[in-house]
Amino acid sequence: MSQPVSPINSPVRLQEVAQAAGVSAVTVSRCISNPDRVSRKTREHVLAIAAELGYIPNRQASSLASARTRVIGVVVPTSANPIHSMVMQGAADVLEPAGYQILLGHSHFSVDAECDLVRTFLGHRVDGILLTGKDHSPDCVDLLRRSGTPVVEMFDYNPEPLDMSVGSSNVDAGAALGRYLIGKGRRHLAFVGHIGLDDSRMADRLAGLRLATEEAGLDAPVAYEITATPGTGQGGEIIGTIIREHPQTDAVVFAGHYVAVGAIRHALDLHLDIPGRVAIAGFGDSIVSGWIRPGLTTIRFPVRETGMEAGRMLLARLAGKTPSGRVTRLGFEIISRESA
Amino acid sequence: MSQPVSPINSPVRLQEVAQAAGVSAVTVSRCISNPDRVSRKTREHVLAIAAELGYIPNRQASSLASARTRVIGVVVPTSANPIHSMVMQGAADVLEPAGYQILLGHSHFSVDAECDLVRTFLGHRVDGILLTGKDHSPDCVDLLRRSGTPVVEMFDYNPEPLDMSVGSSNVDAGAALGRYLIGKGRRHLAFVGHIGLDDSRMADRLAGLRLATEEAGLDAPVAYEITATPGTGQGGEIIGTIIREHPQTDAVVFAGHYVAVGAIRHALDLHLDIPGRVAIAGFGDSIVSGWIRPGLTTIRFPVRETGMEAGRMLLARLAGKTPSGRVTRLGFEIISRESA
DNA sequence: ACTCATTTGGAAAACGCTTTCCATTCTGAT
DNA sequence: ATCAGAATGGAAAGCGTTTTCCAAATGAGT
For residues A260 and B214, which has the higher predicted lDDT (pLDDT)? Predict the structure, then answer.
C-alpha cells in the first residue's frame, strides 16, 4: 500500500508513464512530441507502456510549456447559413488533417460580438484566427495587431487586410451580374438587400450593380431593403411591391439567393412572366436555385475553396513560410439559368 | 534599465498587472475569477489597471491550475450538411452565452475518426463532449467511460446512452411515415437509403417502415441503396429503376430529402404522375421540399432544438444538477405536402 | 479600550508538461 | 586500445495561473 493513491478519474500523467517504463519524464515527452531525439528501442517501449496505461497528454500543460496550442479560432456569423458552414468546412478540411483543432465562435453579424470572441480566442492563445468579412471593431483590430497572432479574413476580397485575406470581390460580382443583365437587354434594374445583417457585403453588391448601370448610361438601380431571416427564403413578396412602385423595372437582383427563389415563387403566383416581364437574379448558389423552375440565374462564389485557401494560408504562415501580409483573390461564376 | 525586458509580442501577465496595481498576483486573480473575495475598492482599481494594460488571462495556465477549461468538444459528421450545422448552431446558442467555447471536429461518418477526435478532446481536457449519433467504436466508449467526462449523444433517440442523450427515434419516424402512406392507400412501398454514410440511421428508418407494413399485413418494403453525396441531391434517377424493376410500387420513401426532391424532378422528366402513379416521401426537411412542385411530404426533425437541448443537458450536469444518465426523447412532425 | 469574529490580501505550493543545458554512453576511425 | 564526436537520456528551471493556508487589518459588541 505504498502506491500513491490517485484521485478518482484522474488521468494518467507523464510521470507515471515514465515510472512504469523505467525512464525519466523527459524521455517520455520526447517519445511523443520529438520522436527523433530518442532511440527506436526506447521509443517503442515507452509508447507501448503509454498506450497500455491509456495515457493522454494534457494539452493545457503542454501548450503552457511550449507556447503553441495547435488550435485555430474561427469566427463565423452563424452556422445556420450553409454558406458560412461551408466556409468552415473548407477550413476544417485543411486544418484538421494538419493536426489543428477548430475553436468555433458565432458573431451573429455583430462586430462587437466578434471582438469578444477574438478576445476569448487570444485568451486561449490560439495559434491563428480565421475571421469572416472585412469589417471589424477598432478594438478588435487593435487586439489582433498587438497580439501578433496570424489572421486570415475570409469571404470578401480585401486588398488591405489586417494580416492576410482570401475571398471574392462583391463589387466585381455585382458589376458582372449587372453587365450580364444589361447585355440581355435589361434597362431598369432593381436591387433588394437585407438590412441589419451583412451590411457591407450588401452595399458592395449594390455598388457593383451601380457601376454597371453607369457604364451603360442607365439610371442607377432602384434599391430596396428587407429584413429577411437569412436562409428562410422569406421576403420574396417584395417582387410585387417593386413592380407596382416601379412598373418599368425589368430586372430584379436579390442579394440572397434564397430570397430570390422565394421571389420566383411569388412571381408565379402573381402571374408575372419570368424572365419575360422581369428577370430575376441572385447572389449565392445552392441546389435550390437549380431545382426551381424557372431556374435562378445567380452568382456562385467558391465558398468551400475560400475556407480551404484560408486554412492553407494560415498553415503556411505557421510553418514560417509566408512573408507577412498576403492577399488571395478568388473569382466567382455566373450561373446562367432561365430566370435571367 | 533594471526593468525586465519582455520578448516581443509577449502578452502582459498577471504578475505585471499586480505590480502595476501595487497588489499581489493572487489579488488580481481573484478580482477576475472570484470578485467577491476582494473589496470593491481594490477590485475596481485592479480591473482598471488590467484593462489599461490590455491584460488577457492565459486560459491554458488557468485551466491547468483549475482543472476546468470552459470548452466543450463537439463532433459532427460534417458541416457541409445543413442538418448537422444546425444541430451545432443549436448547441452553440446555449453554450456560448453560458461562457463555453466550442471545439469542433468532423468525423466524416467514421467511428474511428470520431474516436480520434474524442481522444484529442480529452487531451484538451474539455469540460464536456457532444457526439452525433449512437454508434461509437469500443475504444471510444472505453475512453469516455474512464475519463468521466459528461457526454451527450445527439440526434438519435438512444435509451441506453453512454451518459446522456437527446434525439428523435428514426424507427418511430419510419413507422409513422409508413402508416401515413398506408393510410393514404399505398400498398407497395420501396425504400432508398444511402450506403456507407449514416448506416444505422438508414437501417432504423427502414426498420420503422417495415414495422408499418407488417402491422398492415403488407409485403416488406423493397429496399434500394445508392451512394449519394449528401446534400447534392444526386441519386434521384433511381426512381426510374424502381418503377421498372418493381412496377407495382406505389410509394417510394427516400432516406434523405435532397435525394427525394431530386427524384421528384426525375419523375417529372419521366412523366410519372406524382403522387398519382407513385407517392414520394423523405426524411428531413428544408425549404427545398416546400418549394418544389409537387411539394415533398417529409418528416421534420427538430434539429436546432436537439442541439439546444443537448447544450442544456450538458450545462445542467456541469452545474452539478443532474443525476447521472438522462435521456430526452424528442418527436418529429410529418409535413404533408402534395407528393404523398 | 479590549475581545472576538470577519474581511481582506499574501506566500507558497501545485497543475503537467517542454526546454535548455549537461553528463553519459555509443560509434567507428585511427 | 584510444579518442573525437555523435547519439542518447536526465536534472532543473520554467510556463502563467489557481488554491490552499495564514497573517494582518478591520469592525462589532461589550
Answer: B214
Query: pTM for the complete prediction?
Result: 0.93
Burial class (CB in 10 A: 0-12, 13-18, 19+), A2: exposed
**For residue A78, pLDDT beyond 60:** yes
Strand partners, A74: A104, A130
Helices of type H across chain A: 14-21, 25-33, 40-53, 59-66, 82-95, 111-123, 138-147, 170-183, 199-215, 238-245, 257-269, 287-291, 303-318
Of B210, B204, B339, residue with least CA distance to B285 = B339
| pLDDT above 70: residue A59 | yes
Q: Is the pLDDT of residue A127 over 70?
A: yes
Are A340 and A279 spatial neighbours (Cβ–Cβ below 8 Å)?
yes
Euclidean distance between CA atoms A235 and A242, whole angstroms: 12
Q: How many CB atoms sit inside 10 A of residue B247's CB?
A: 9
DSSP 8-state assignment for residue A12? P
Q: Which residue of B has its CA nearest to A82?
A: B82
Task: Give the gap in angstroms from C-alpha A57 to the nearest C-alpha of chain B.
Answer: 6
| Higher pLDDT among residues A79 and B321, named by residue | A79
B14 touches strand C (CB under 7 A): no
How far is A5 from B16, CA to CA, in rounded Å?
38
C-alpha cell at B333: 412532425
β pairing state of A189-194 and A251-254? parallel
- Torsion over CA of A129, A135, A136 and A141, rounded to 10 degrees? 70
User: Considering CB atoms only, which of B63, B261, B292 is closest to A60?
Assistant: B63
Report the footprint of strand D: residues with C-beta closer than 7 angstroms: A 23-27, 37-42, 61, 64-65, 67; B 10, 13-15, 25-26, 29-30, 32-34, 55, 57-58, 61-62, 64-66
Q: In chain B, whose CA is at the least distance from the CA of A295? A: B292
The whole-angstrom separation of Cα A293 and Cα A289 is 9
